[in-house]
């Protein structure tokens, strides 16, 4: 039975760096950006919308299926501790806790919004030069102002993630989320990593002692 933690960071805020640091611990498996949160959300929505399911199955079975999914999804690693990375976890904390039958712990990397937007724009200008770039080239993204508005909108990459984390804190989950500032992670990594291990209640890996 794997122990599962969650990473739900702001974009361009050091979450990849954090994942690489955590993965140095041989007991830790850290996923790349994962679709598991979407699968969990999809099961829940299907359970609520399907007339057949609503008529014949209990919500307890739904929770058991989701619980089993967490284990089977990470069956490709033998490491006992898993960190699943997705920007979708903050909005479904209650569902996850009901399925796992325990409070969760989540790591969230943060950065000044201006720094995030500047980093996104730098990445956009770099990637858009490639003919096979996944960067969106819609009319809304045709100007710097348009790109900033798109990323910052309530449904956007930055605005949506920020609102999800803020709402999770306002729903009463603040103590379950350990916020990690990008500048602190890069300037004082040892102190920052120690605070993460303390939050997770794990012995500090020797490389960071």
Number of strands: 5
Spatial order of strands in the largest sheet? 2-3-1-4-5
Approximate strand percentage:
5-15%
Based on helices, strands and strand pairing, what is the structural class?
alpha/beta
How many individual helices? 10
The run of helices and strands is EHEHHHEHEHHHEHH
Q: Which percent bin holds the helix content?
A: 40-55%
Main β sheet profile: 5 strands, parallel
Choose one word for the global shape: globular
For the CA atoms, what is the radius of gyration? 19 Å
Gap between N and C termini, in Å? Answer: 28 Å
- Low-confidence segments, given as residue ranges, are none
**Mean residue pLDDT:** 95
How are the SSEs ordered, and which strands pair?
Layout: E1 3-7, H1 15-22, E2 28-33, H2 36-49, H3 51-56, H4 59-73, E3 81-85, H5 93-100, E4 106-110, H6 113-127, H7 144-152, H8 157-173, E5 177-181, H9 182-187, H10 189-200
Parallel strand pairs: 1-3, 1-4, 2-3, 4-5
What does it look like?
With 209 residues, the chain is α/β, with parallel strands linked by helices. Helix content is 53%, strand content 12%. It has helices spanning 15-22, 36-49, 51-56, 59-73, 93-100, 113-127, 144-152, 157-173, 182-187, 189-200, and strands at 3-7, 28-33, 81-85, 106-110, 177-181. The longest helix is centred in the C-terminal third of the chain and has 17 residues, at 157-173. The model has no long low-confidence stretch (mean pLDDT 95).
Write a short abstract of this structure:
The protein has 209 residues and is α/β, with parallel strands linked by helices. The chain is built from ten helices and five strands; from the N terminus they run βαβαααβαβαααβαα.
């Amino acid at each position: 039975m794997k122990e599962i933690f969650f990473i739900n960071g702001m974009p361009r805020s050091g979450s990849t760096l954090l994942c690489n640091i955590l993965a140095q611990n041989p007991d830790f498996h850290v996923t790349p950006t994962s679709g598991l949160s979407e699968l969990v959300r999809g099961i829940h929505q299907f359970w609520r919308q399907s007339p057949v399911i609503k008529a014949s199955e209990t919500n307890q079975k739904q929770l058991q299926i989701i619980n089993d999914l967490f284990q089977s999804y990470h069956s490709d690693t033998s490491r006992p501790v898993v960190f699943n990375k997705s920007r979708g976890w903050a909005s479904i904390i209650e569902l996850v806790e009901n399925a796992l039958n325990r409070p969760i712990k989540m790591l969230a990397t943060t950065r000044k919004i201006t720094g995030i937007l500047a980093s996104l724009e730098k990445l956009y200008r770099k990637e858009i030069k490639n003919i096979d770039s996944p960067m969106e080239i819609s009319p809304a993204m045709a100007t710097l102002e348009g790109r900033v508005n798109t990323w910052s909108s309530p449904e956007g990459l930055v605005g949506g993630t920020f609102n999800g984390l803020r709402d999770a804190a306002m729903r009463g989950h603040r103590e379950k989320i350990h916020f990690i500032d990008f500048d602190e992670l890069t300037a004082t990594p040892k102190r920052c990593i120690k605070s993460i291990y303390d939050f997770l209640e794990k012995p500090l890996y020797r490389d960071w002692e």
